[in-house]
Amino acid sequence: MSDYYQILGVARDASPEQIKKAYRKLAREHHPDVAEAEGSEDMFKDVSRAYEVLSNPEKRRQYDMGSDPSSASGGGMGGGGFGFQDIFETFFGAQQGASAQRGPIPRARRGQDALVRLDLDLADAVFGVRRELQVDTAVVCTTCAGSCCRPGTSPRTCEVCGGRGVVQRVARSFLGQVMTSSPCAACHGFGTTIPEPCPDCSGEGRVRSRRTLVVDVPAGVDTGTRIKLTGQGEVGPAGGPSGDIYFEIRERQHDVFVRRGDDLHCNLEVPMTAAALGTVLSLDTFDGAQDVDLRPGTQPGHVLTLKGLGVGHLHVGGRGDLHVHVDVLVPTGLDEEQEQLLTRLATLRGEERPEARLSGAHGKVFSKLRDKLSGR
Fold this sequence. Notes:
By secondary structure, this protein is of the alpha+beta class.
């Protein structure tokens, strides 16, 4: 008994689809009208017999139990799910077979999606904002209401394909005459023609128009965030369903605040005397003026954190923080009196000739270098 699995080159637990795929490949290679190698005809017969058995669940079960059902059927091409359709699909592809059964395609189709850039200020990202935007898009033609026809007229059944949307032709092959199908060139596959197109939309069923859309931008959006408005895109041809519109956020750079995630950062410049003596300063934030308590002896680079004054968290509530980086300003251009006062202060503190002292730089220098390289 022949090993049909070996002939097709598949495993014994191969799926029906794997068996069919292997058969198609071998049938193309060894068909007598295609192959020129000696023995191709015998190989084609073996491949056909193997497929006849293994493509039929009952025959495959009998074969796996040790009997050869092909001997009873005479090894012909009838039964077992093997016939003209399999040969047709093997040499012409499944698409041709499917096109013969396809009806006319709908004239109304879904509209395309649209992508629109939306520029926002940082304040809009902090709290969220509602924006009204003007967009140019396709809307249903009010003259023909999407029918594509001049008012008072209607589509006409295509005289070439009889409304089927496809035309059939007879082609010759090694199997004889084969019927093929292709979209009708007269109606472009729709099955109908528009004898009198609408004068306003030229038979498209839609026209370009400017619309006003309201977009609710939630707090926490960032550059690259996309907001989807379902069904607000352009109307499809012949008044088909509308596509979607996406608004892609681009956040403008702020003059004072820098955003890192949902936290905000800013620099606060204070005089040397204020940093030494301490003071209370008023800082303008997105939430209005906030008092900042500067403790006596505040050092350059000290960070004050104002909780909950950052950017709103997207979809989850709450807000990030505002981090205030203190920058101590060393006075320059001192007059004589100011210089004398500072000299006396240095004398009182024993700092007339201060000694240079080196301290660990890893926590400061390298962190600043890292921030500079990362663009912070």
